[in-house]
Amino acid sequence: MTTSIQNSDIVLKQENILDVLRTNSWFNNLPQYLIDTLMQCGSLRFYQDSEMVHYQGDPARGLYAVIQGSVKVSSISADGRECVFRYLSPGNWFGEIAMLDKSARTHDAKAISPTILLTIAPKDLTMILDKYPVFYQSLNILLCKVIRNAFTIINDSALLSVSARLAKRLLSLAEGYGEPHEKGIQLSLYLTQDDLATIINATRQTINKRLVAWEKLGWIDAKYGKIVLVNLPALKQISEDDEE
Q: Torsion angle of alpha carbons 166, 169, 175, 178, nearest 10°?
């Protein structure tokens, strides 16, 4: 493994990187020889907060895994409106679509905190696929996870209320970014009401109304972009409700 980590005081050992990657079930279920090969071919790079990993339309330059930090995957419309598809926490892989079809990137990917990515370069991925064709099946499984997630977002947008969508997304973010807090689980991501609105395809005013109401009920504590989930059972019940 090679490193290209700049402007970072973080020291990463290979076993620490492997521990992060093994939190992902897709990676953890790979045969050991593929895990060893990916680790040997991978290189590390540090990204500053708000630094672009790639833009929509860029050529594919790698298959990525988040080791530390976070990556936002989104698209920007011609009039500047942003559509956020997902936030990628440590252990998550991305970039498989363009690497498989040799086409352009489908979305923007931006680091939203100081972030370290493991990168498998195109030439190395080609070598792995030539040597171990079974890895095509593994990449297809990774792609299917992305497609299933996309269908879930579409279904939720069409069938669930705003309250259900918001509660469901907060609970989902807690799985990747949740940290213990004296009141419950705090999201380590800094999220504005505009961010939450773009995630679930709602207006900022609607998000504000829900958050204020839930805070009065004692379900959450939301201040300065930091959200603490206090009453998880209540939020789970709302996430399963299709009524406003």
A: -50
Length of the chain as a residue count = 244
- Residue 13 identity: K
Kindly report, residue by residue over 72-88, the tens digit of the pLDDT: 999 988 888 888 889 99
Q: Which two tokens stand for residue 187?
A: 């999201």
Contact yes or no for 43/121 (Cβ under 8 A): yes
Cut 0.85: pTM above it: yes
Q: Checking DSSP bridges between strand 226-229 and strand 220-223, what pairing results, if any?
A: antiparallel
H/E element holding 9?
none
Give CA separation, 124 vs 37, 139, 157, in Å. Answer: 10, 14, 38
Residue-wise burial string across 132-156, b where 16 or more C-beta atoms lie within 10 A, e elsewhere: eeebeebbeebeebbeeeeeebeeb
Residues sharing a CB contact under 8 Å with residue 116, sequence separation 6 or more, in sequence order: 5, 8, 10, 12, 44, 45, 46, 47, 66, 67, 68, 69
Range list of β-strands (E), the chain: 2-4, 43-47, 52-54, 63-68, 71-76, 82-88, 93-94, 108-111, 115-120, 178-181, 184-187, 220-223, 226-229
Q: Which residues pair with 120 in a beta bridge?
A: 63
CA distance 85 to 97: 15
